[in-house]
Amino acid sequence: xxxxxxxxxxxxxxxxxxxxxxxxxxxxxxxxxxxxxxxxxxxxxxxxxxxxxxxxxxxxxxxxxxxxxxxxxxxxxxxxxxxxxxxxxxxxxxxxxxxxxxxxxxxxxxxxxxxxxxxxxxxxxxxxxxxxxxxxxxxxxxxxxxx
Length: 147
Ligand code: ASC
What we know:
This protein is mainly alpha-helical. About 75% of the residues lie in helices and about 0% in strands. The protein has a single domain (about 1-145), classed as Four Helix Bundle (Hemerythrin (Met), subunit A). The protein contains six helices and no strands. Helix 5 (about 95-120) packs antiparallel against helix 6 (about 120-145). It starts with a helix and ends with a helix. The structure holds ascorbic acid. Pfam families: Cytochrom_C_2.
């Protein structure tokens, strides 16, 4: 019983932490922009590898992709209800299913990149990297104001 109560408390604590994550819309925007920036920095590290500008080091690529897999989960918490603004189009909130579908496809593509990196298969890494990049572009085209 104690264990069950403990688990219930932890779930409650986790959800209240999430609810209190952002003090304001500006905080949510800063969070998602910061998360995308760190994500983009790691995606960018793979670019010379897939372009053949540096030798393929399977272990180094695995390390970066592992971080990308984690970072890819982060920005979305910053798109909560009522956080319209920044470079985001209102469609994210008004057309939420399309945004969710794009995000889901992005995560699927990131998982495929992880599998390719774990296999140490450079051709597969290139292919799945390009598919991840395509997901980034689709979302920018549809849901980010041109800058
Ligand atoms: C990146 C980055 C993006 C995407 C995009 C892919 O590294 O910062 O926004 O890749 O350029 O098309």
